[in-house]
Amino acid sequence: MQPGIWGALFLLVACLLALGGAGHANAGEWQISAVSAALGLGLTGYEVWRRKNRTVLVKDGELIAVFRKGRLDLVLAPGAVTRVKAGPVLMLQVGIPLGLCAAAFTSIGILGLLRDGSGTGDSLAILALGLGCGASLASAAWTRFSCWHLRVPVKGSRWLAEETVLVPRSRIRELFVDDARVGTEGRP
Question: N or C: more exposed end of the chain, with fewer CB within 10 A?
C-alpha cells in the first residue's frame, strides 16, 4: 500500500506545481513537476502491478499451496514458511519520524492556507505531504498489527530466494492448525 500512497502524493504535488498559484509556473517548477509526476506514475504503476501479481497461500491438507499470478507455484510444508515480526524499536524508528512529519507538515500547510487565504499551491503541497505521511503511518500500523508477515520461498527466481507475504490474522488459523508450526525469524 505504501507505493500507492506515495505515488498518489507525488502525482498530487505534480498537479499542484504544474497548475501553480499564479498560473505561470517557472521552468524550475515545471521540472520539479515533471520529476514528481514520473515518480508518482512509477510508484502507482508498481502498486497496480504488485496487486495484480499477488501471492496467495491456500491450505492443501497438511501442506500449504503457494499461488503466484493465479497459478500453483509451490506446495510447502508449514515449517518452510517463516514468520517475520518487526520489533518495537523498528516500529518506533519508523513511526516517530512519520508521525512528527505528519503533524508538522499538516500544521504548516493549514497555517499557510489560513494565512494566505487563497489556497496557494505551495501550502496545498505541504498539506498533502503531511496527509501522505499520516496515511503512510496509518498503513504501516495497520499492516503491523492486523497481518502476519510470512517469508515464503520463491522457486526459480534468480533475484529473490524468499518473498514476504502479508496474511490477515483472521486467516492464520485456517492456514496453520497450530501457530507453533510457523518459524519465527528463521527456520524452525
Answer: C
Contact indicator for 156, 54 with CB cutoff of 8 Å = no
Q: Which three cell numbers stand for residue 175?
A: 492456514
Strand order from edge to edge, sheet including 63-68: 55-60, 63-68, 71-76
- Greater pLDDT, 164 or 160: 164
Distance CA 26, CA 117 (A): 22
* DSSP codes joined into one string, 94-149: HHHHHHHHHHHHHHHHHHHHHHHSS--HHHHHHHHHHHHHHHHHHHHHHHHHHEEE
The answer to whether the beta carbons of residues 40 and 14 sit under 8 Å apart is yes
Q: What is the pLDDT of residues 72-101, one digit of tens each?
A: 888 988 888 888 887 888 888 989 999 999
Edge-first strand listing for the sheet containing 162-168: 162-168, 147-153, 82-84, 183-184
- Residue 66: which residues within 8 A CB-CB, separation 6 or more? 55, 56, 57, 72, 73, 74, 75, 76, 152
The pTM score is 0.76
Q: Rounded mean pLDDT of 16-25?
A: 65
Alpha-carbon torsion, ordered 15, 136, 127, 100, to 10 deg = -150
Task: Yes or no: say if 124 and 114 are a contact pair by the CB < 8 Å rule.
Answer: no
